[in-house]
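Colleagues,

Please find the record for the two-part complex below.
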Amino acid sequence: MTSGRFGFVVTRWAVLTATLLATSPGAMSQVPGSKLPNGTVVPDITGIWERIEGIRFAPAGQMPPYNADYRHRYDLAMEARNRGERVADPTSRCLPQGMPRFMVASYPLEILQTRGQVTLIAEWSSQVRRVFTDGRGHPPADEIDITFNGHSTGRWEGQALVVDTVGIRGDTSFDASPLTHSDQMTVSERIFLKNPQTLVAEITVTDPGAFTAPWKVVRTYRRGGPDARIMEYVCEENNREIFLPGQNQPKP
Amino acid sequence: MRQRLLLICLLTGIALPVLAHHSFSMFDEKKETVLKGEVKEFQWSNPHTWIQLNVTDESGKVVEWSIEGGSPNLVGRQGWKRNTFKPGDKVEITVHPMRDGQPGGSFMRAVLPDGRRLGGDQIPAAAK
């Protein structure tokens, strides 16, 4: 009798849990091939993705729609560089690339799809981005931790993973050029398969502090072959770069 | 001597003009210097590989050159291995030398002891 009652409780618990799993977006299975309530079958973007374009954030070297202030900063930095001065790139000190440079994929990216989360791993300096697809929102703006990769939430819209990233540090880089941005920058992405071997990230950078309009950049990646692997990369291992204090900061 | 110089620089806050790993502006990309020497050490490391090469100059003095190569993550995918250069190997390496005349440069190409050639475009900005 006791075991029967226990079995009943277990069964009820299992049914309740299953119901919660089915209804809570957080627990919904979002692994490749699973079907979402809206009918979308989650695309398989899991795997290793290699950069096709160069290492400029905007593949053709396009400039962001800078306001006069940030255009001036950029011009000053370029003049200094052209004079032979070293305009420091934060990554020279082994600081993370952060967003949006992460998506340049200097070295390959690995994407993992698990329940409620898509994880992007960049080989360069072993960086990790976690995109929460469990339905949660961002923390309140005045509480959010300001980080290199920011806080990313995502959802599947049709065949695209739509990602919204806020809480990004003001000093992350776009690439090794002197392009900078303000601490008001946010990034939204549409990440989708063009075909099973080709991944596209449409990256829209919005920065009311530095840009006069959103800046849209499209980057493309090819699926790594059977031998593709992510290698270890510890930038601090043997960095011979030496900076004086403050030298890594963008010049105001 | 080198360590003492580094110590002095650290104590006095003077930046030792070492080789940058991301800005290559300290290398003269218009110049090529051919170095024939003996490998002292091959550092298979990030963010860049380094070949320490002992080169004997005309006066018979041995000068140690620091030659910056691509990251293992880059050149490893181009076929380099951590034993591509071994201590004692007699090799010829062509570099873009440092502008300030220090014995350093960025790797362009090499001829290995067995005559194999390692070609050249591994390093430029793509090494980030």
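Residues 47-238 of chain A form a domain with the Lipocalin fold (CATH 2.40.128.20).

Comments are welcome before we finalize the supplementary table.
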